[in-house]
TrEMBL record:
SUPFAM superfamilies: FAD-binding/transporter-associated domain-like. The lineage of its organism: Eukaryota, Viridiplantae, Streptophyta, Embryophyta, Tracheophyta. This is FAD-binding PCMH-type domain-containing protein. One of its GO terms (biological process) is alkaloid metabolic process. GO terms for molecular function: FAD binding; oxidoreductase activity. The keyword Protein biosynthesis does not apply. Residues 1-21 form the signal peptide. Residues 69-295 form the FAD-binding PCMH-type domain. Involved in the biosynthesis of pyridine alkaloid natural products, leading mainly to the production of anabasine, anatabine, nicotine and nornicotine, effective deterrents against herbivores with antiparasitic and pesticide properties (neurotoxins); nornicotine serves as the precursor in the synthesis of the carcinogen compound N'-nitrosonornicotine (NNN). Catalyzes a late oxidation step subsequent to the pyridine ring condensation reaction in the biosynthesis of alkaloids. Its cofactor is FAD. Belongs to the oxygen-dependent FAD-linked oxidoreductase family. Pfam families: BBE (PF08031), FAD_binding_4 (PF01565).
Amino acid sequence: MVTLDSILLFVLFFLPYLVTSHNNNFYGLCLSNESDNQPHHNIVHAVGSKNYQSILESSIHNARFNNSNVPKPYYIIVPQNKEQVRGAMICCKKLGFESRIRSGGHDYEGLSFISYKPYCLIDLSSLRKIDIDVQEKTAWVEAGATIGELYYNIGNKSNTLGFPAGTCPSVGVGGHISGGGQGRKHHLRRLMRKKFPELKLKSKDCEEMSWINSTIRIDSYRKDSRIEDLLERNKEKRLTFYKTKSDYVTKALSEKALQGLWNVFKSTGDGLVILTPHGGRMSEILEDAIPFPHRKGVLYNLQYFALWHHPNQTAEKIKFDWVNGVYDYMGKFVSNPRTAYLNTRDLELGRTLIGNEKYSETKSWGEMYFKGNFEKLARVKYSVDPTNYFRNEQSIPPLAP
Ligand SMILES: Cc1cc2nc3c(=O)[nH]c(=O)nc-3n(C[C@H](O)[C@H](O)[C@H](O)COP(=O)(O)OP(=O)(O)OC[C@H]3O[C@@H](n4cnc5c(N)ncnc54)[C@H](O)[C@@H]3O)c2cc1C
């Protein structure tokens, strides 16, 4: 009889051999057959190879996921063109690996570079071509570009065009836009005068600047920052650890509710609560028009964000307790049913582990992110990926008709 122990022993014993033979497969048979005929050295980096660690870490922004306990990919593949993306996916699947796709690497739970089964990491950071058509007011952007690179390119071509995306320039276009992508496009003074006249904001309290300069200022809050700073992919790579959760507010919070929030803030540690206004054009789009469903009726998105700099369990516990304390307190004031923003990924809402979980097991957290669109997305998923190869711990499961 084959026991689990003997299978494990077999796997451990043969692992080095499997890695070497897979490596040959990748170079020799698989990638060259499945993609173009260009040389593939520098594209496939097997675990233990010279550049493996630096490439792996190049886009890990949350230090919570940069330690020896976190699973690592067997291969990192850095495609230089779309044919190689295709080849890499086919190879990984053929060789029995799962795949993880990484653009900017900002996923709050590290899902773009972590899997608990043997896996390849397909890192899109070399695919960052950006074409701006000023006449048409459109841009074609490859998924591995960052939003900072996009801002920079728009700013270089036009003084009047802009693109309202996130505040942190090193966030990847691939993850940011596919997850919703909320950003700024404010005419602050006019808005403040209309909505909050009691604050008496005057011109002299404001500093006029171009959109491109405002993108740099909001990121660094420094007067001496340069437009080129937007191109730094790893700028904020310090030893920063963080955890977030999110909510949507559909009914204005009372003063009493805010006072209570302030008390939770003071009593349980520290962190940030970020309010991102919705409405305007966002609420004109119907809830089921595209996957992002947080539309009409949403006043603003709330993000509870805790950050720490020293890796120890006590610090982590305090910060997690703070985020969870604020989240628990806010439960009665936010949207009902409770919802969440996909880009504020939160595995505490639920996750899949094996990959063949039933749709019904994923509904509770899936509908928080996608509301009624979740079922539709699961049916589309079945039609394009019935075996659920493209997955992570919070991906959309296939739902058969
Ligand atoms: C410091 C910081 C600041 C942030 N600021 C904002 C903000 O202002 N506004 C906002 O809305 N969000 C913000 N976010 C959240 C951010 O938008 C999300 O984390 C987003 O998913 C990051 O995209 P990425 O490409 O950098 O991440 P990745 O980790 O590379 O990807 C995120 C997810 O998308 C998948 N993915 C990425 N590329 C592809 C692709 N080409 N094809 C298929 N799947 C893909 C990954 O597998 C992963 O599941 C911020 C996050 C951080 C850490």
